[in-house]
Each structure stands twice: as C-alpha cells, then as structure tokens.
Amino acid sequence: MNAHDMEWNDxxxxxxxxxxxSLSAAARELGINHSTVFRRINSVExxxxxxxxxxxxxxxxxxxxxxxxLAASERIESEVFTxxxxxxxxxxxxxxxxxxxxxxxxxLKILTPHFVHFCQTYPNIRFELSLDNRFLxxxxxxxxxxxxxxxxxxxxxxxxxxxxxxxxxxxxKTYLDAHNDESLDTYHWLMPRDDQDWYSANQWLTRKHPKxxxxxxxxxxxxxxxxxxxGLGVAPLPLFLAESSRELRCLIDPPSALSSELWLLTxxxxxRTARVQAFTTYIAEVIEAERHRIERRSPRR
Length: 301
Known about the structure:
Layout: H1 8-20, H2 23-30, H3 34-48, E1 53-56, E2 59-62, H4 64-89, E3 96-102, H5 104-121, E4 125-131, E5 145-149, E6 158-165, E7 167-172, H6 173-178, E8 188-192, H7 201-208, E9 213-218, H8 221-229, E10 234-238, H9 239-242, E11 248-250, E12 260-266, H10 274-290
Parallel strand pairs: 3-4, 3-5, 8-9
Antiparallel strand pairs: 1-2, 5-12, 6-12, 7-10, 7-11
Helix pairs in contact: 1-2, 1-3, 1-4, 2-3, 5-10
C-alpha cells in the first residue's frame, strides 16, 4: 500500500494528532473516541509503511515523515475548505446551516431574542451558535459569520463596523460605600484573564494604576459582572452589561483607551450566500436599534 490509498478522513486524523500532540486531545477535537484515533493512526502508518509518530510518555511526537505528511495535509485541508466556501457562496437558498460566533455577554444580554426572531423568520435555516470570545477561523469554516469586539479585524475577512463598544469601571453600591475613602489604586480589582487579548483592560490597568491589586480573574465577562455585583471589588465592564444592573455604580467616564468596536465579519467567499446575507442585514439593523445600550453615554453616579 502507498499514499494513493490515503483518504481525506485519514488525513484529518493525522492533522488532529499533529496539532494536539495526544490521542485523547485529537479525539475530542474530532468528536470520536480515543480507540478510533489509535486504530486510524496505526492504519495510516501501515498504508504508508512509515512511522509518523514517536510514542512518548508525554504524548505523540512527529517524526520527520510525520512533519512531511502534516505539511501536505495542511495544503489539502486548505483546498478542501476553499472548495467548501465557494460552494456555500453559490448557494442562493434561504435554507441550510448557518454557523455564527458571538461574544458570550453580548449574546446573553442583547442578542438572544433577536437570534430567536431570526430563526422564527427563516425556519429553514439551521442556526448554530458558538459563544466564544476568540477569533474563530472563518477560512476554515469554524464559523460563517462572526460578531466580534476588535479595533483591527483580520485583513482577509470582509465586514462592517456596527458601533463603538464602550467600557467603564464599576463597583457595587455596597462595596463602594464601604470603601468610599479609598482611591482606584487601593480597590480590589476583578479583571479578565491575561490571555484575553481581545479585551484591552489589563493593559489599561497596568498603565494607569500599576499598584492596583487584582484578586479575581475570569475569561467570562458575565462572571466578572456577577462577582462585582456581589461586592468583591471593581471591574472594567461594557456599558451594555453593567448599566442594566441596579446594584452597580459607574466610577469614571468611559476611558477611550478601553473602548473597542463591534464588527460583523464573514469570509469573502460567503458574502453572496443567501442565508449569510439575510443574517448580516438583519443583525446590522438590530445593532443600530440597540446601539444606545452599547455606546458611551453619561455615567450613572
């Protein structure tokens, strides 16, 4: 047997193990079980009469042959996804699968009823939502449409800026009343995790209040808001999230350094897809109607 006997599904398994470094992690990525990945890798190696991985106590490490197969597989993967996007882009039916990614807090606070209305309006479109603050790879069809907070969208996507996304510093009335003789430097701070590079609050705090003590971190803005409501400290929160709470008080005017922008993005190959066009047009109208909840206004004291 040789490489001519290889199938795309074989290469998908090889890619997953190369990228993840272990069978269990690759199985989770592919949505199959550990033993299936084990059998498929052994089968591929038998077909090629090559050892693609060294079995180490720490995981699977690529051999030189494995690195060659990885490079070839990534080129094939890119072509497969390009074909998939082009075929989807030619689809003029208001039906089929629509994969959308959006920030968790914005979805839960503002977008969910509008997503429901869209699904009711277009019952033949299967709506799949990913609540993720990372940039999913639109070129790899991880999503068809992304609603994202960013000041600089990737150059290879197309889209439009929907509105500004303003952030200020909030604390609960109980916490602030108990610490009213203190400054921002001495408050307990609740912050996003350091790896959340989509949110500039960590850089702002380091620059403006280098002596501040951070006692709590989360990768979820709704979790930060809840901890703030319960009086743990102060936190940088989007206005749309904080201003709806009667328990929170805004401390300062929203700093421009904390502001971001809300963008609606898709891949160029998908811009003429009927279901993508219907959704992007609808969400642009929704955000225009809701922008008074998202953009800067006078802080509540």
